[in-house]
Amino acid sequence: MNEIGNKIREIRKKKGLSQEELAESAKINLRTIQRIENNESEPRGKTLNLICEVLDINAEDILDYGKQTDKSYLIIFHLSVISFLAIPVGNIILPLILWMNKKDRVIGLKKVGANLLNFQIIWSIIAFLSITGFALLKILNFKYYPILFYLFIGLYAMNVILPIIFAIKTNKGKTENLYPNIIKLIK
Fold it and tell me: Smallest Cα–Cα separation from 77: which of 96, 49, 50, 64?
């Protein structure tokens, strides 16, 4: 638990706040902040929540009960999306299974997983609509139907390339939300 103070100090510095500013914003005594950051005491209940609120983070992210860093699992998680090439809707099912199994045990997986799954759900809907629109417009002999087919091919290519790029970025240590998030269905 001695890492809590170090984590709070690191996040505070990333946010560009001084100890005084954090104490004032959280309505906590400056000496309390100093003790916490020096690992002389641990923040409890309300104090921890006030600090987390000012730093715009979840208390669970600081506490990390039983969580561990597993970069290889995050890489496999990103690459599991490519299963859509062999399994219909595999880009949602396989990552969902991986996410549900370890979202509370791997640091960063809960947030990254929700981001990835939201993107994959929206991607699947758009891909389905584009191929359905293509088929419908082809049947109706509409002049510009190939545009939807090219959109569909572009979406497929994007969903192969993005997971590979994001797996490489994860391997280099970048684990924040990488996929564009249009609509948040899963939080």
Answer: 96
Structure tokens at 83: 């299963």
118, 183 contact by CB (below 8 A): yes
- Neighbouring CB atoms inside 10 A of 136's CB total 12
Residues in CB range of 180: below 8 A, 6 or more apart: 119
Question: Locate tokens 């001084």: which residue?
Answer: 18
Residue in 70, 79, 72, 73 with CA at minimum distance from that of residue 162: 79
pTM value?
A: 0.64
C-alpha to C-alpha distance for 127 and 160, rounded to whole angstroms: 13
Q: How far apart are CA 107 and CA 102, in angstroms?
A: 9
What one-letter code names the amino acid at 110?
K
The whole-angstrom separation of Cα 142 and Cα 146 is 9
d(Cα 109, Cα 92) in Å, to the nearest integer? 15
User: Could you list the pLDDT tens digit for every one of the 187 residues in the chain?
Assistant: 457 888 888 888 988 989 899 889 989 998 998 988 888 888 888 888 888 888 888 776 677 655 677 888 999 999 999 999 999 899 999 999 999 998 878 878 888 888 899 999 999 998 999 889 888 988 988 888 788 889 889 999 999 999 999 999 989 887 776 777 777 777 7
Answer yes or no: are the C-beta atoms of 133 and 148 closer than 8 Å: yes
Q: How far apart are CA 26 and CA 59, in angstroms?
A: 14
